[in-house]
Design brief:
Elements: H1 15-31, H2 34-47, H3 52-64, H4 68-81, H5 86-98, H6 102-115, H7 120-132, H8 136-150, H9 154-166, H10 170-183, H11 188-200, H12 204-217, H13 222-234, H14 238-249, H15 256-268, H16 277-288, H17 295-307, H18 312-325, H19 330-343, H20 346-359, H21 364-376, H22 380-392, H23 400-416, H24 420-433, H25 438-451, H26 455-468, H27 473-485, H28 489-502, H29 509-521, H30 525-538, H31 543-551
Helix pairs in contact: 1-2, 2-3, 3-4, 4-5, 5-6, 6-7, 7-8, 8-9, 9-10, 10-11, 11-12, 11-13, 12-13, 13-14, 15-17, 17-18, 18-19, 19-20, 19-21, 20-21, 21-22, 22-23, 23-24, 23-25, 25-26, 25-27, 26-27, 27-28, 27-29, 28-29, 29-30, 30-31
C-alpha cells in the first residue's frame, strides 16, 4: 500500500461511519475483491467528498475500468485536497505524462522539486518532459540544475552539447565539452572527447592540435592515435594514415578487440585510397610477427584469405602458425582438420584430432573427424570407438544438431556391424535430440524395413522425409521400399517411379532392383524384368538379380 501520510478524515458524526466503510474497503481491496472495494469507496466519497485517500484509491479502479477521465478527476481531487502528499502529486504527474499532457506534468514536477531540491530523479524527469514538450532551453536548464547536484560529468555535458547542436548553437555545443575537459584536466579521455567534437564540426587543425597534446602526455594513447588516423584519412594523407595504422596495431595499449576492429575497418576500406589485399595482408603478417600476435588475429587473417579465394596452402600456413603459440585453440585446429579431411589426408586428420582433443576433451567435432577418418580407412571398430568417445562428452550445453548427428552416425556404424539393438537405441537417441534429423529418419526406416521390423513406425518416419523433400530420390526409394514391405504394392510403385524420375543417370543398381521387385509383386512382370535387366547391367555379378531374371519373379532374399 502506498504512503497516505497526512490523510484527513472529517470530524462530524458521520466520521465513524466513514472510517468503518473505508477500513472495509481497504480489507476487501487486500483480499482482491475489487468490486466490493470499489462500491465501498464510492459510498465513502458520498459521505465525505473531501477524503483524499478515497478519491486516490477510486482513481486506480477507474484506471482498471479504462475510464481515464474519471481516474484523472479523482487523482486531481486527491492532490488538490492534500497538496503536501507527494504520493498523490507524483501519481497525478505520472498520469499527465501517460496522457501526453506535458505542460501540466511539468508544472507538477517543478512543484515537487521546489519541495525537495535534492531529488535528481525529478530533474531527470523534467529534462525528458521539456524535450517532449519541445522546450529545449528549459531542458538545458534542467541539466544545469542537475549538474549542481551531481557535478559536471560526461553524461550531462554530452546531453547539453547534443541539445545545443540541435538548437544550431555549434560553438556553445563545442564549448560544453571543452569545459568538461578542463574540469578534469588529468583525464585524457575527456580531452579526447573535446578533440572529437572539434573534428566532427570540421575544426580539423584545432582537433589535431589537441590530439597531439594528448600524445605529448601519453605517446601510446590509443584513442588519440585512432582519431589522428581518421584525420589523415579525412585529409587524404594516405602515407601518414598507413604509418598511424601500424602504430595502433603494434601499440601495447591497443586491445585485441581494438586490433580486430581496425583490421576489419581496413578490410572495408579495401579498394579506396590505395588500400589493397597486399597492404591488408602486410598488416596481418606484421602483427603476427610481433609480441601483439594472437590466435584471434590469425583466425581473422585465415577468414580474410578464404574470402579472397587464396590457396588453401596459404591459409594452412596461417593456421599452423597460430597452433605454434596457441596449440589449445579449438577453432584453428578444427579448420586445419577440415582442410586435411577435404584433401583426404586422413592420417593428418587423426594426428591433429588426437592432439587437439587432449587440449579440448569436450569438443565433439574432434571425435567426429577422427571417427569419419577411421571409417574412410575402413576401420569401423576404430570409428565406432571414436564416436563413442564423442557421445561420452555430451552434456546439457551440447549443440543438439551436433549431438543428433553423432548418434545418427553411431547408429549406422552399429547396424553395419550387425548390432541392431544398439543401432536402434542410437537412432532413438538421435531423434530425441532432433526429431527432424531427416538423414537418421531415412536410414532408420530403411534398416527397419530391411529387417521387416516395426514397419508402421518405419512408414511414419520415412513419410516425414518425403514430405520434407518430395524430390529426393533416396527418400522416395526408402518410402517405396517400406510400402513394399507392408505389401502396399500400388503405392510403392508410384513412389519408386518418382524416385527414378528424380535420380541422376548414375543411379545405383539398388534403385532399379527395388523397382523390379515392386513391379513384380504388383503384377507388372514385364516392367519388372525391364528394371532388373538395367540393375544387372549396373551390377553384372549380382546373383540375386540373375535368379530373379531366370525365374521371372521376385525371390525373397
Amino acid at each position: 500500500m502506498m504512503s497516505l501520510v497526512g490523510a484527513k478524515v472529517p470530524a462530524q458524526d458521520s466520521s465513524s461511519v466513514y472510517n468503518r466503510l473505508f477500513l472495509e474497503a481497504v480489507v476487501e481491496r487486500q483480499k482482491g475483491n475489487d468490486t466490493a472495494a470499489f462500491d465501498l469507496l464510492q459510498r465513502c466519497v458520498q459521505i465525505n467528498p473531501n477524503a483524499a485517500e478515497s478519491h486516490y484509491y477510486l482513481a486506480h479502479y477507474y484506471l482498471k475500468l479504462k475510464k481515464n477521465k474519471e481516474a484523472l478527476a479523482c487523482f486531481e481531487k486527491a492532490a488538490r485536497l492534500e497538496p503536501s502528499n507527494t504520493t498523490y502529486t507524483e501519481t497525478l504527474a505520472e498520469m499527465y505524462v501517460s496522457l501526453a499532457d506535458y505542460k501540466n506534468a511539468i508544472a507538477l514536477w517543478e512543484k515537487i522539486f521546489e519541495t525537495d531540491g535534492s531529488r535528481e530523479d525529478v530533474l531527470e524527469m523534467l529534462f525528458r518532459l521539456y524535450q517532449m514538450d519541445d522546450n529545449l532551453d528549459m531542458a538545458i536548464n534542467s541539466l544545469t540544475r542537475l549538474e549542481v547536484l551531481e557535478d559536471k560529468n560526461e553524461g550531462i555535458s554530452f546531453a547539453k552539447s547534443e541539445i545545443l547542436t540541435r538548437l544550431g548553437k555549434k560553438e556553445e555545443a563545442i564549448d560544453e565539452i571543452r569545459k568538461l575537459a578542463e574540469h578534469y584536466p588529468s583525464d585524457l579521455n575527456y580531452k579526447g572527447l573535446y578533440a572529437d567534437i572539434l573534428m566532427q564540426n570540421d575544426y580539423d587543425n584545432e582537433a589535431l592540435k589537441v590530439y597531439n597534446e594528448i600524445l605529448d602526455e601519453e605517446p601510446d594513447n590509443n584513442r588519440a592515435q585512432m582519431s589522428i588516423r581518421s584525420y589523415f584519412l579525412k585529409t587524404g594523407d594516405t602515407a601518414k594514415a598507413d604509418s598511424m595504422t601500424m602504430k595502433i596495431l603494434l601499440n601495447k595499449n591497443t586491445t585485441g578487440e581494438g586490433r580486430e576492429y581496425l583490421l576489419r575497418q581496413l578490410i572495408s576500406e579495401e579498394g579506396n585510397d590505395g588500400v589493397d589485399s597486399i597492404k591488408v595482408l602486410s598488416c596481418f603478417e606484421t602483427i603476427q610477427r610481433s609480441d601483439c600476435r594472437s590466435a584471434d588475429i590469425g583466425l581473422l587473417q585465415a577468414a580474410y584469405m578464404r574470402m579472397k579465394n587464396m590457396p588453401s596452402d596459404s591459409v594452412e600456413r596461417v593456421l599452423r602458425q597460430v597452433m605454434t603459440f596457441a596449440p589449445d585453440n579449438a577453432p584453428a585446429s578444427l579448420q586445419l582438420i577440415y582442410l586435411e579431411y577435404e584433401r583426404g589426408n586422413f592420417e593428418q586428420v587423426l594426428k591433429l584430432a588426437a592432439t587437439s582433443s587432449q587440449y579440448n576433451p569436450e569438443e565433439m567435432a574432434f571425435y567426429y573427424f577422427e571417427g569419419m577418418s577411421l571409417y574412410q580407412q575402413d576401420d569401423k571398430d576404430g570409428a565406432l570407438n571414436a564416436f563413442r568417445k564423442g557421445v561420452s562428452v555430451i552434456n546439457d550445453r551440447s549443440n543438439p544438431d551436433i549431438v543428433s548427428d553423432f548418434y545418427s552416425v553411431l547408429g549406422d556404424l552399429y547396424f553395419q556391424k550387425g548390432m541392431r539393438s544398439e543401432a536402434y537405441a542410437a537412432y532413438d537417441s538421435c531423434l530425441q535430440w532432433k526429431p527432424d534429423n531427416y538423414g537418421c529418419l531415412n536410414n532408420y526406416a530403411y534398416y527397419l524395413s530391411e529387417m521387416g521390423e516395426q514397419l508402421e513406425k518405419a512408414e511414419q518416419m520415412s513419410f516425414k522425409t518425403v514430405k520434407n523433400d518430395p524430390k529426393n530420390a533416396t527418400c522416395l526409394d526408402t518410402y517405396a521400399w517400406v510400402l513394399f514391405k507392408l505389401e502396399r504394392y500400388a503405392e510403392a510403385k508410384v513412389y519408386i517411379e518418382q524416385a527414378l524420375q528424380n535420380e541422376e543417370d548414375t543411379v545405383s543398381h539398388v534403385l532399379y532392383e527395388h523397382a523390379g521387385d515392386i513391379c513384380a509383386m504388383g503384377g507388372f512382370t514385364e516392367k519388372a524384368i525391364e528394371y532388373w535387366k538395367i540393375a544387372l547391367q549396373r551390377d553384372p555379378q549380382n546373383k540375386a538379380i540373375q535368379r530373379k531374371l531366370k525365374h521371372k519373379k521376385y525371390i525373397r532374399q
